Batch of 4 targets.
Target 1
Amino acid sequence: MNMMDMFGKMKEVQSRMKDAQETLSTVTETGESGAGMVKVTVNGLKNVLKIEIDPDLIKPDDREMLQDLIVAATNKAMANIETKAREHLRQATEGLLPNIPGLNLDGLMS
């Protein structure tokens, strides 16, 4: 592969990466805590989209536990969306560049 081809591929990678980043809002992940009693859904942009709470948890005496469960579910969703977002971006650029040892495009995916 000559340098001009490589530059052309890099422009295509940048274009596809931009498109993939724009669609990260459609990539979602849900984290659960309390055996599924609290669920938090986030997107690839790390925005919380939805919080679901089992009706049995909504009691004044359980407020502190409920808050802890929401935090735990949110943290699980945020941890899992990172992997899912990277995979989404990897698939968008798959096959564009040859496998070059030492070439790490992870910086483009953050």
Target 2
Amino acid sequence: MNELNSKNFRELIRMLERKLGLLNKQDSCCLEVSLAQCHALVEIGRAKNISLKDLANLINLDISTMSRTVDSLVKKDFVFRMTSETDRRSVDIKLTEKGLILFNDIESKMNDKFKSIFNQIALEDQITVFKGLNIIIDALEKNENSSEFCNGNSSTKCNNTKK
């Protein structure tokens, strides 16, 4: 029974990922940037000021990939880099005025979109949804540092490194 439940869970998560992916592709608020750049821009905007290392960790990318993503945002004049005030070896990233305008637009449109989705859920089920999502996030966080296995084959460990 547990295998059936884990397979159903996997299928539901896969469907959720696809639905959320479709939401992102349909959103006109990120047309000026790629989806990866959009995620970075939102996290920078929410943090106000963030190191490249912290941004990479937050988005779960290696620093070189994150650096290229930030470089492209710098070229488009959405963010700027500056030497950290606390660690001269570190680079901090902030939004430009143009980046702040795009960030606020993205946040507003996504808040409206998810409000619309959330309002489709019956009031009595909304707490259950929050609780269920928190349980899934907690389980994912606990699993991040544990040994993972690929393809149901317990003799082959997954690579847990960030890509």
Target 3
Amino acid sequence: MSGVMPKFAVASMVMWMAPAAILYGFHHQLFPGVIQLSSSAQTLVSGFLAVISVNLVIGFYIYMALKETPAKEPQPDAAFLANAKASINRPISSQVGDDSQGKERWSRKNLRRVLF
């Protein structure tokens, strides 16, 4: 996870610089063969190449993200595990009997009050 931010920063910079460099190169005829194109063709080709360069950078960034090794799986809290194991080992019959009878009496009393 520590390498995520530098990779993101580099990918973001390249996503801005690559299209700008392509557009600059076409505008100043730095690429070979650009002089033979009309101005509208130069604009179209440079625009398409700029868009393709951004998509290539995004694709490369996704590839790098998928190639990363997964982080170590988080471990549960030791106190939580101890409490969970203790609650599993408690006898169930005494807990259920007390709770269910208490709730049943309470609901019968309230039912009588409501009905009568």
Target 4
Amino acid sequence: MKLQPDKYDVPSINGYGPGWIAINGEKHQGSVVVSSQGEQFAWQAERFEDLNESHFAQLAALDCEVVVFGSGLRNRFPPAAWLRPLIERRIGLETMDTHAACRTYNILAGEGRKVAAALLLEPAQDQTP
């Protein structure tokens, strides 16, 4: 049986490790936002504690169905006040650790969903087991 590799017509995350993520083969070493509609930009936060409502307002401007929030090495939930811009635009938010968010984004984007991933990449030296 001949197998064909999955081919996405949307930006995909094809690798990650401590302190980095590869989107369409391009390595990023800081927090990043990527959407299935082609938007991609640096997300100015190194730690969860650096985030605030303005970070989530950036995500609301993407006008997608759902945002997959990768909160770093562990699952951390943003305060409700930060989510106001998303709630006002009726955009869903799923929160999980960053590596799970990478995998989830790929699945949803591959299904043709209007999805964005906001991926918090903590500095590599903070990533001890």
